[in-house]
From TrEMBL:
Gene3D superfamilies: Dihydrodipicolinate Reductase, domain 2 (3.30.360.10), NAD(P)-binding Rossmann-like Domain (3.40.50.720). Pfam families: GFO_IDH_MocA (PF01408), GFO_IDH_MocA_C3 (PF22725). This is Dehydrogenase. Residues 4-123 form the Gfo/Idh/MocA-like oxidoreductase N-terminal domain. Residues 131-258 form the GFO/IDH/MocA-like oxidoreductase domain. GO terms for molecular function: nucleotide binding. It comes from the Bacteria. InterPro entries: Gfo/Idh/MocA-like_OxRdtase_N, Gfo/Idh/MocA_Oxidoreductases, GFO_IDH_MocA-like_dom, Glc-Fru_OxRdtase_bac, NAD(P)-bd_dom_sf.
Length: 341
């Protein structure tokens, strides 16, 4: 079988730590090109992977040499580049948040449909073993009715992780559109929807800039969320957890409490009301600290969906629903009112 010809657009940290190495590891993929407006960076990455370098994504997509692309650019370019790619007859794996507005997210979904191409959003939290196990336990009734939850995603901020440090686009509102809530919070809205198996319908939020005086985007946000069946809980997203990353989720149910990625040794701890405690060692969640050593499974799932012509596990529609919660949180913070999603 002929290999899938893939290019990566945007050669920053997420491309270098995740997309490029994961495509390279994939036996069904031939990495053919990389693209970035920073000429020095794109040439360096291209020579490292032995592929062609482009500084214009239009030129790359017009070349007709690729079947699929990863879009790893600043947030404001996700939708425009994805739409051009889909309209060029190319499958798209897009980083999160998929877009900066409902309209642009819808345009991506439409373009995928119109051209019969795959669109997947890189929400890797769904593929973490502890998260999949929790979803299963909830689905088969082992936790009983869910009453509440709290989830957090925080680390010291992108300046320690982005290729451009403090000068990164992450801190510029016109390019990032949203800070910690878009970087981390959207992962957690997607995760909650996935684990609980229901939609979030109302949001109340404080979205603040308290820690990074060199940027103009949010770096600390706390939201109260309500699902369609009435489960209420909190979500915190922060770039101000300075000593250790927190990526934990706790689900409070009628028959048990699930602690996900909360205990340093056990990725899932189930505390039953009977007093029984079950600890699962399910492998570590990927973090920015592991130097990209682990597999996020995003690329592999995207490639499988193309090869087997199946629905991508995080479709444009799924990405849209997770983005909608974040947009409602922004609106809530601005208006000081609870917002419908």
């Amino acid at each position: 079988m002929e290999k899938l010809k893939v290019a990566v657009i945007g050669c920053g940290s997420i491309a270098q730590y995740r997309h490029l190495p994961e495509y390279k590891m994939n036996k069904d993929v031939e990495l053919v090109a990389v693209c970035d407006i920073n000429e020095e960076r794109v040439n360096k990455v291209a020579s490292e992977y032995g592929v062609k370098a482009y500084t214009s994504y239009e030129e790359l997509l017009a070349s007709g040499t690729v079947d699929a692309v990863s879009v790893c650019t600043p947030n404001y370019l996700h939708a425009p580049i994805s739409v051009v790619a889909l309209n060029s007859g190319v499958h798209v794996l897009c980083e999160k948040p998929m877009a900066t507005s409902k309209e642009s997210a819808e345009a991506m979904i439409e373009a995928a449909k119109a051209n019969n191409k795959k669109l997947m959003i890189a929400h890797n939290q769904r593929f973490v073993a502890s998260h999949q196990k929790a979803r299963q336990l909830i689905e088969n009734g082992e936790v009983g009715r869910i009453y509440s939850f709290r989830t957090a995603f925080g680390h010291g901020g992108p300046e320690g992780w982005s290729v451009d440090g403090k000068d990164s686009w992450f801190f510029r509102k016109e390019e990032a559109f949203i800070g910690a809530m878009g970087d981390l919070g959207v992962h957690k809205t997607d995760l909650l929807r996935y684990i609980l198996g229901e939609e979030i319908v109302e949001v109340g939020a404080f979205v603040e800039t308290t820690a990074k005086d060199f940027g103009d985007v949010d770096d600390n946000a706390v939201c109260v969320l309500k699902t369609e069946s009435g489960i209420v809980g909190t979500l915190a997203a922060s770039w101000a957890y300075t000593s250790k990353e927190d990526n934990s989720t706790i689900i409070y149910g009628e028959k048990a409490i699930l602690r996900l990625e909360d205990d340093p040794n056990y990725s899932l701890v189930v505390q039953y009301t009977t007093g029984e405690v079950v600890k699962y060692e399910l492998g570590k969640i990927q973090s920015n600290d592991d130097g990209g050593q682990s597999n996020s499974h995003v690329v592999e799932k995207f490639v499988d969906a193309i090869i087997n012509d199946t629905e991508t596990p995080v479709s444009g529609e799924e990405g849209f629903k997770s983005l909608a919660v974040i947009l409602a949180a922004l609106e809530s913070s601005e208006t000081k009112q609870i917002k419908q999603v």
